[in-house]
Structure formats: structure tokens, C-alpha cells
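User: Predict the complex with 3-isopropylmalic acid.
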Amino acid sequence: MASNRKLLVLPGDGIGPEAMKQVRRVVDWFDKRRTVSFDLKEGLVGGASYEKHGTPLTDETMALAQSCDATLFGAVGGPQWDNLPFDKKPERGLLRLRKEMDLFANLRPAIVFEALADASALKRELVAGLDILILRELTGGVYFGEPRGVTTLPDGQKKAVDTQVYTTSEIQRVARVGFELARKRGNRLHSVEKANVMHTGVLWREVVTALHKAEYSDVKLEHMYADNCAMQLVRNPKQFDVIVTDNLFGDILSDCAAMLTGSLGMLPSASLGAPDATGRRKALYEPVHGSAPDIAGKDMANPLATLLSFAMMLRYSFDLADDAALVEQAAKNVLAKGLRTRDIASAGSTVVSTTQMGDALLKELDALAA
Ligand code: IPM
Ligand code: MG
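Assistant: Here is the predicted structure with 3-isopropylmalic acid placed in the model:
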């Protein structure tokens, strides 16, 4: 038996808990059927934590995340918490986890499953076979830069400030991850900023260029402005392999890339820290979709993005590529059989509930492992 892996599960708000419930069934399946097992703890985050503890993330849960091998995160947020003070908002829980664990590298793959190519808003030929990876810097930039806040001016009007800041080392470490990922894939990297307008963009381009020259000249590097990148993503997405970009551009471009695949409900992500002396990285895995409060509690949500996030965890945190592939294959098979949650339904498919999707996945896993 392999040793236990310490796993923290944070279902959060909205559709987070119901999607996570199905993934927990898959984790249990692994416990029973495979050699890998998990020492699993569950905690509150976001609005759920605020309701119980008055804060979107307690120090205890933060410490638990620090001590676990990996965290699987659901989603946070909902309209009932929209008017809370800034530091109590559900999203602060997620941002605190990212920042305090220093999870600077956010991997957001956008892969078109063959069975879903027609669900994309783009023509099939533009997206069929698409497999790109957006690498978003996650702990710097305008999300955390100081000064930030709202002040009142002498004339009574208000002034709001956010600050975009990047240092050489922050750019270097994420660019390095980008080059390494590109080498394992199509060997092409697009570095995306706005060097035509922003000082951080100029520095970004300078640092990436220098690193490329010094250590990664075998990788094909191209620089692109962020606005052009948004346009190119919908014009001809297959020109990209890996895109490395800052926190805010990465937030926007990854939603755009997500929709190329047909549904936000399909997309997983991994947020990784720097490797420690043993090579282990702190890590958090989460679906790219949000809490979708409009469909929460209705057993309609798509659990596949959370499931595929769990697969990424198996691959990146636990080096269990075969088990990750098994999970991914189960998801593909279920889709190939025409089963769809409502978000990815199309003519001729069978619309299933969140729970039924979980049932079908377990059946597929049983069949694949038989
Ligand atoms: C994301 C989300 C978050 C972000 C929100 C929930 C804080 O949009 O992970 O893309 O802006 O980073
Ligand atoms: Mg986002």
C-alpha cells in the first residue's frame, strides 16, 4: 500500500458542495479500488465560513491547508455576500489561500473534448483538437499590489486605487514554469503583457527575453500584447501552445479560453508554489467555474471541472499519472455516451443531474479498472 496523502477538501459555496460531493465518491472509489489512499479533511471557505465563523477563511483552516499535501477547492461567492466589507467577502478566502501558500503558478488548461466540439461558440474546425495551456501568475500584480483602497478627496468625491506591481524575480519564476511546461508540450510559449502601455509590461518582456536567451533558447518564444491575444484566442486558438501572463490578464484570457471548449463547467486548474528541498510543491486545485448561485442546490451543476481538478492533483502533486489518466478517460467515456449536464447539453444528448453524472463516472471507473 502506498502511504496516505494528506488532502484538504474545501467545497465552499454555490455549486461547490454538490460538485465536490460527486468527486468525494471518486476519491472513495480510489481508496477502495486502487493502491492510493487519502487522509482526507474537510473545511469551510468563502460565504460558508463567513456564516459560521464571521470570516471567509479561519486561521485554523489556513494552517490545515499549509500542512496538507494538496487542497481541492470548490467555488466561493454568492449574491447574499456581495455587500460585505471587502475583507469579509468570500473571494478573500481564496485569495488568502493563494497568497499565503505562495501559489504563484496557475495552470489553466483549455482542452476541447471531441464529444463537445460542437458545444463551443466557435466553429468546430477552429476548436476541434484544441489543447492549450494558460499559465497565469497568481500572487502578484494588481490583485495584491500596494497602495490599494478607496479614499475621500477634499472636494468630497472618492478616489479608488489599485496598483500593478511586478519584480524581476516574480516574473522570472513564473516564466521559468512556462518554459518548462512548453518543453513538455509543443515547445512554444507566448508571453503576454501590454509593454506598449505599462511599465510592468516592459519589465515582463525584458525578463522573459533574458531568461529565454540564457536558459531556454530551444523553446520558440513569441511576445504578444494582451488585447491582441484576446482577439487571437477567438480568431485562431490553435496557434497557441502555452501562454504565460500576469494575474489580471490571466484571469480574463483564461475565461475566454475556457469558453472555446464549450463550457466553463469542464475546466480544471492547478495552482502551484515553488518546489521545496524534497521537490514537493504546495498546491491547490480548483475548477475554473465559479459558484453559479443561480443553479446551486438544484442538482444541475457539472461536476467534471472539479473531477478533472482532482485528476490534475493526482498528476502534479502525487505523481500518479496513470490514475489521473484513468479519471480523465472515465470523463471522456461518459461524454462519448452522450451523457451531459445541462451546461453542455446538445441535440441528441441525454441531460443528467449532478448525481447521475457521478453515478455514470463511478460505473465507468469500475469498467475501466475491471
Ligand atoms: C478566478 C476567479 C477569481 C479571480 C475570483 C473568484 C477571486 O475569477 O479564479 O479566475 O479573480 O482570480
Ligand atoms: Mg476568473
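The pocket of 3-isopropylmalic acid (ligand 1) is lined by residues 91, 94-95, 251 (CB under 6 Å).
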